[in-house]
Design goal:
Protein name: Potassium channel family protein
Structural class: mainly alpha
CATH class of the largest domain: Mainly Alpha
Number of strands: 0
InterPro entries: K_chnl_dom (IPR013099), VG_K_chnl (IPR028325), Volt_channel_dom_sf (IPR027359)
Mean pLDDT: 72
Keywords: Ion channel, Ion transport, Membrane, Transmembrane, Transmembrane helix, Transport
Subcellular location: Membrane
Shape: elongated
Helix content: over 70%
Strand content: under 5%
Distance between the termini: 40 Å
Membrane topology: Multi-pass membrane protein
Length: about 240
């Protein structure tokens, strides 16, 4: 499917805004804050416009959760969610249609996309209370670092929860991290197995199509034998 030039230009413009938003992360001054809010306003208008144009609005909200998270007006906190919008926008371009469609198919296997959503939400939100309840965690970036290290089961040990609530949250992150690794492993196996079956079906269809193309080369006697065989197979079923 060829994308109109205007639509492609618009999507590339949104892509530039996303990349610009990431480039501004290290800088904290009046102009960068103002620019970030301007980018947020554009994202919000884009989301609202797409939502208004969607025929099934509930379905649109369910299928675009990260776009909704990305427009929440919390400076810096939810900016990481915009990286998923990057994949969404790239998919709308010719390059995305060619290279990222297999990735989307993989993410849909076994409901991995939903599990990733839950995983990312926990990684984003659980660090928030950790800033207030843990004496060793003084800011959100440190808490986010701890959450990522814990969820991926790396366990550097540079930040250790000491409060009961902190340890409960850490346990949740560890269990989710272990489940996430297992989910990815099972998804890879299911995707590979399904892909093999799809290739097998494609080969069969190609073989049948080739045989049909060659039917004109058969004589009347051979066609009669073929019809008799097909009739017999139909009765067996």
């Amino acid at each position: 499917m060829k994308i109109p030039k205007k639509a492609l230009t618009y999507e590339l413009f949104m892509l530039v805004l996303i990349l610009l938003s990431f480039a501004l992360i290290p800088y904290h001054n009046f102009w960068t804050v103002l620019l970030n809010w301007a980018i947020w306003a554009i994202f919000t208008l884009d989301y609202v416009a797409r939502l208004v144009r969607a025929e099934d609005k509930k379905k649109y909200i369910k299928t675009h959760p990260f776009q909704l998270i990305a427009i929440i007006p919390a400076y810096g906190l939810f900016r990481a969610a915009r990286i998923v919008s990057l994949f969404h926008l790239l998919r709308l371009t010719a390059m995305g249609n060619r290279y990222l469609t297999p990735l989307y198919n993989f993410l849909k296997t076994n409901g991995l996309n939903r599990f990733i959503l839950i995983f990312l939400l926990l990684v984003i939100f659980i660090p928030v209370p950790m800033v207030f309840i843990e004496p060793e965690i003084h800011n959100y970036p440190d808490a986010l670092w701890w959450a990522i290290v814990t969820a991926t089961t790396v366990g550097y040990g540079d930040i250790i929860p000491v409060t009961p609530i902190g340890r409960i949250l850490a346990s949740i992150m560890m269990l989710v991290g272990i489940g996430f690794i297992g989910m990815i492993t099972s998804t890879i196996m299911s995707y590979a197995s399904g892909k093999k079956k799809r290739f097998s079906s494609t080969d069969k269809i190609a073989h049948i199509t080739k045989a049909i193309d060659q039917i004109e080369e058969l004589n009347e006697k051979e066609i009669a034998v073929l019809e008799s065989y097909l009739a017999m197979k139909k009765k067996d079923e």
